[in-house]
Predict the 3D structure of the following.
Amino acid sequence: PTVDKVMLCGCWGGLRSGSQDVLIEAQREQRRASALVEVLKAVVLTKKGLVSRLLQIGKEVMACEQVTLFFMDEARGVLVAANTMEAKEICVKVGQGIAGSVAYSKKAANIADAYKDNRFDQRTDMETGFRTKSVLCAPVLDCRGECVAVIQALNKKTGAQFFDDEDEFVLATLASELQRPLRRAAMEHAFRGACVRAEHDDEPSMLAMLFSGTDEDKEIDAVASVVASNLKLKKDTENTMVQSYSSEYASQNDNRSKAQDVARGLSDGEINAFNSYLYNLAWDVTSATEIEVRRMILAIMEADDSIRIHKVDRKKLGSFFDSIQSSYRDNYYHNFEHGVCVMHASFVVSRISKLISTALFPIDLLALKLAAIGHDVDHPGTNNDFEINTNSHRALIYNDIAVLENHHASFFFITLRKPQCDALCALSRAEYTHFRKIVINSILATDMSRHGKHVQFLRDAADAYHRQDCEETIPSSQFLVDTCIHLGDLINSTHPDFSVVKKWGFRVIAEFKYQAALELKLGLPVSPSMTKLETNSDIAHSQLGFIDYVVYPLVAAACDLMPELNQLEINLAKNRQGWADLGTGSSSQEKEEYNRQRVHPIRNAGKVRTVTRATDAVSRKDEDGAV
């Protein structure tokens, strides 16, 4: 009995110890989850005073005396401390001090006693009277692995008064969730600082704007001016700054006609030219000024009654466009110009096609136009395979399934739910549910892994539609919207001007090269389609394959269902010949190779189509003098 009692006590003691461990671990997980929730709330819901809120969260969760955020100013090679107590900037050179060393090495540092670390600069303590004891410092890296900021926590107040692995986790979580907003804030801060230094004016620093809150239009204007002037400062920046979409809508009188709204400030000749491009795929967004781009977006939105019928708030819609534009990254190809191009092309296709123009309801048209312009928002300039191979945060969230497309759709609605962007607040629950479904599915339909199925669905729909002239064979509104946006996403190859086609082609090649360089740097397998793209012959060969196996099957199937789009097929054949001519070298062998590819069959689901079909169509049109 004595032995049993001892054993029982020992077991109970072990159970109690194990329960305590479980409780402690549960409390740790709860604290971690709480920290993550607070960070996400600050990032998603807080627009003004973002930095102040984040630093306060850091102090509360980590139980320390101070948390400092340093922005990376790449132009000057320094970190700039975000500090509400100091009127002037506190700068730390990259590579010096604890924060500078972390920025340089891109690795976190946990120091129990700052004065025993050779990197610590004691002068700041001497000047401020603050006594630094323990330090935890972590870098904030963007999706490309570059340091855009550093977060530093000082003087743990509880326990052993130094930071442990749990604190490291919390700070790392904070840093990982702040990649994008901090990168944007750092860019704006650098821009503002450069303006102040170059112009010697009294404009408040970006840090003051971040802490006190700022007008959203001014933030967007700052970013737009960085892109527009490529950091070349001019004294007349304010005079030449393009008015934001929200300002454009705010200044409009709802009682004015659509023509007056769109054509304000244009001469009669400019109005006629503008109207000709509104419903014409010949419009080139890459050659348009920012004012012309803005007018085109507004004209597309006002071209039907969807805004009036669904009581869309025009000013908030303008703010939505402002936010979407600023959220597109400065990529070679997947940038805001691409989003506008897809919006315009999708709109034109929806108007040209009799099937689509009669089948879609106003709520469908509204979803089509907004989904098109936001279908690639916040695109990183790399593809889904890169996200999956790098085990990115987005890939983990979306389980390696349509990673970027899911991200674009989510980002779209996060933007739309902002109070200043909630332009659809008048929609009923049923209308909003339908709108959301159309937008999400149409953005997901741009995933190229679905391309083959979409082409086959188009062919089947065309066969059914022409075989039976009945209402039951009309494709669903979702499928028609998907088709418009997917066509718009690949429409560049069908532009009537080959110089525009070539411009977009070289842009996408530049983005391919960028990803290939990243993959090589990270030791990842380089995508085969992104290698050997050095000469015109290489690039032309790549574009010919893209047309033959991707664009042409889609365009041909769409033209079967909607004959009004036949001009796309004609343009595609001409542009294919343009690439073949560009890639043809002086040798007869190369010419023979390109001529062979020119009639390469495209096989899908037992059907054989050849590019000669479109080429023959061109020849017939030429003979008739129609083209």
